[in-house]
C-alpha cells in the first residue's frame, strides 16, 4: 500500500455498470477537493488529478477497469479511504 514515506495508494476495480461516469467523477472530485495535498488516480500509464472531473473522465474507466488512487500526504488518509469506499460501493448507485 505504501509507495514512499509520504504517499499512500489503493488499487480498486470499477464495479459500477456505467463505469466511472460524470456523476461518479463529480463525487470523487468533491472528496479530493477537501484534501491537504494532491490526490491522483492512475489507470495504466495515464494519471489524472482526482479533483478535476474532466481529468477523471479522460481516463475512460469502464466497468472492470483497475485504477490506483494515491494521496501525497498521510493526513489525507481519510480522503483515500472515502474515495476507495465510494468506488468499491459502485458510487452509491
Structure overview:
This protein is of the alpha+beta class. Helices cover 31% and strands 23% of the residues. The protein contains 3 helices and 4 strands; from the N terminus they run βαββαβα. A 4-stranded antiparallel sheet has the order 1-4-2-3. A hairpin with a 2-residue loop joins strand 2 and strand 3 (46-49). The longest helix is centred in the C-terminal third of the chain and has 12 residues, at 77-88. The chain is globular, with a radius of gyration of 12 Å. The model is unreliable at 1-5 (pLDDT under 50).
Spatial strand order of the main sheet: 1-4-2-3
- Structural category is alpha+beta
Based on CA atoms alone, the radius of gyration comes out at 12 Å
User: What are the low-pLDDT stretches, counting only 5+ consecutive residues below 50?
Assistant: 1-5
Total DSSP E strands: 4
Number of helices: 3
Specify the helix fraction band: 25-40%
Assign an overall shape: globular
Residue fraction in strands: 15-25%
Biggest sheet features: 4 strands, antiparallel
Mean pLDDT: 92
> What is the H/E string?
EHEEHEH
Distance between the termini: 27 Å
Structural features:
3 helices, four-stranded antiparallel sheet, 23% strand, 93 residues, alpha+beta, disordered N terminus, single chain
Short description:
With 93 residues, this protein is of the alpha+beta class. The chain is built from three helices and four strands. The chain has helices at residues 22-32, 53-58, 77-88, and strands spanning 8-13, 39-43, 46-49, 66-71.
Amino acid at each position: 500500500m505504501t509507495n514512499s514515506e509520504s504517499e499512500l495508494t489503493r488499487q480498486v476495480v470499477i464495479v459500477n455498470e456505467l463505469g466511472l461516469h460524470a456523476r461518479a467523477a463529480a463525487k470523487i472530485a468533491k472528496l479530493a477537493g477537501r484534501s491537504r495535498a494532491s490526490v491522483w488516480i492512475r489507470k495504466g500509464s495515464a494519471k489524472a488529478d482526482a479533483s478535476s472531473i474532466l481529468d477523471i473522465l479522460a481516463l475512460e474507466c469502464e466497468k472492470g477497469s483497475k485504477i490506483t488512487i494515491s494521496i501525497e500526504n498521510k493526513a489525507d488518509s481519510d480522503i483515500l479511504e472515502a474515495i476507495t469506499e465510494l468506488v468499491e460501493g459502485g458510487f452509491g448507485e
